[in-house]
Amino acid sequence: MRAASGGLAAFLALATVSPLARAQAVLHEEPSDPSQSPQRWIVELRAGPYRPDVDSEFNGASNPHEQFFGSKRRPMFQLETDYQFFHRFGSAAVTGSIGYFRETAKALVEGGEAGQRSGDSTSLTLVPLSVGLVYRFDVAALRTQIPLVPYAKAGLSYTYWSIANGNGDVAMFPGPMSGKGRGGTPGWTGAVGVALMLNFLDPTAARAFDGESGVNHTYLFFELVHADGSGLGKKGVLHVGDDTWFAGLSFEF
Fold first, then answer.
1. Which of 246, 251, 250, 229 is nearest to 238 (CA)?
2. Are residues 70 and 177 in the same domain?
3. What percent of the chain stands above pLDDT 70?
């Protein structure tokens, strides 16, 4: 990534710099605004509608999830933290996230009429964990007056899931969902989105916020997500993925 030959002197000068300093120089470009604090982390808070595709496992032969919980989407909440290791023509980061989803419904009466419900409730809880990479094209937002940052994410996931009965105990199910109602499903995730940098609304307040708290930028964002929770080829696992969207607020510092 550097030049050569007259070059030899430049190379020797560069070689005298410690590896750590060189890595920081290459991977961590200082903010275009010298008054800004260093930029390394992003924290995102987001939510979106979710419906786990449990029934896709049965290829139309059965639809236990829809029978129990219906077809309604319910909110998924997620927290994500990114560490930015690259700042050249955009930023790249290692990302990790955790989520929470829960849906409840009245339990079906075993042996009763079709669709007959009891007074007891059953619930499905998902806690998705993921690690991956994210690239943000923030050059235009940092160097021009265009406050939009498109980005893309990809990674691996593991979703802990639990089905509980009306007493709060782990449920036991016959038929297509037979077995103990607790487990985990590996998978992968991909997303594309766009973030709106809010600093332009009040640049003076944004600089003051940076000076007081170290937050360089605040964003509103929207992203389209493919969550493949089908086991990465593993058979007999509960499918918990979905194609959906998320929106939220992020802080870069």
1. 229
2. yes
3. 76
